[in-house]
Amino acid sequence: MTTGLYTHHSSLDHDTSPGHPERIERIATVYATLDGAGFAALRRREAPPASVDELGRVHRGDYVTHTLERIPAAGFSRLDPDTVVSPGSGIAALHAAGAMIAAVDDVVAGNADNAFCAVRPPGHHAEAGRGMGFCLFNNVAVGAMHARHVHGLQRIAIVDFDVHHGNGTQAMFENDPDTLFASTHQYPHYPGTGAAGETGVGNVFNAPLAASSGGAEFRAAMEERILPALRGFAPAIVFVSAGFDAHARDPLASLNFEEADYEWATRKLMEVADEFSGGRLVSTLEGGYDLEALGNSVQAHVGALMSP
């Protein structure tokens, strides 16, 4: 297997203020993990910036320009109470979305079998006209619409296993029958969406998990709801919003996943991609706030992507 790794140094310049959980040390930990000897075979690429037009496939144009204009020349500013930006945040957000575009291009061209985008800020809470929950632009949605508009891949699946429901991604696609959105997440929990009854136009599959749920409940949700939906949909490409904050060590939620659960889920999603999508799978980093758990979980996820 050839796995592409897409990064950009600007992820280290997105300063969210002292004490903020979505901190620079997160991506530094991911980079240190993936610089290990077991990851020498990764095909490493520098992520380009997304253009305003590319972001505009999923975001309102006025939102994109307004967000970039709100990046301060010094100090910190807030898009909402949780979402802090600083002078390096705009460039980082453009490259985080651009990583997904480059990854899609390479996977579709056959330059990589699959891909992982190790970038920040995360994206799955960002709606068409609103940033929230640490997210400025919806990276996975940008990649999905690039796959459709540039490469003609009509049937797109997005699977999100972050502990927080990907409300932004769901809102963007809940009326699009050619895009499947499937999510496991703690519920009720931030951002308050993700009930099982939220089904879109038959293309949304939420599998909410109660607090204290662990790997057994997660795997059951995947086996009973998410994976059958994916196989019934037969996607042309699979995207993953890979948040690792459902880990038992994570401070922002109350689920009890372990590294082995992320490895298992990754392999299951690869099986679906192999069966229906020519192996095409693109994953991007979302949450994960305990540094030890984050590093170990990324190791498990990317290690599975690299395995035949």
Which features does this protein show?
308 residues; eight-stranded parallel beta sheet; alpha/beta; 16% strand; globular; 38% helix
Provide a short characterization of the protein structure.
This protein has 308 residues and is α/β, with parallel strands linked by helices. It contains nine helices and ten strands. The longest helix has 21 residues.
Please provide a written account of the structure.
It is a single chain. The chain is α/β, with parallel strands linked by helices. The chain has one domain (3-306): Histone deacetylase domain (Arginase, Chain A, 3-Layer(aba) Sandwich), CATH 3.40.800.20. It is 38% helix and 16% strand. The protein has helices at 24-34, 52-55, 61-69, 89-109, 139-151, 167-173, 215-233, 259-276, 291-306, and strands at 3-7, 43-46, 77-80, 83-85, 114-117, 156-160, 179-186, 204-209, 237-242, 281-285. Strands 2-1-5-10-9-6-7-8 form an 8-stranded parallel beta sheet, sandwiched between helices. The protein has a two-stranded antiparallel sheet with strand order 3-4. Helix 6 (167-173) links the parallel strand 6 (156-160) and strand 7 (179-186). Helix 1 (24-34) packs across helix 9 (291-306) and helix 7 (215-233) runs parallel beside helix 8 (259-276). It is globular. The model has no long low-confidence stretch (mean pLDDT 98).
Largest sheet: 8 strands, parallel
What is the number of helical segments per DSSP (H or I, 4+ residues)?
Answer: 9
CATH T-level fold name: Arginase, Chain A
> Uncertain segments of ≥5 residues (pLDDT<50)?
none
Q: Report the count of strand segments.
A: 10
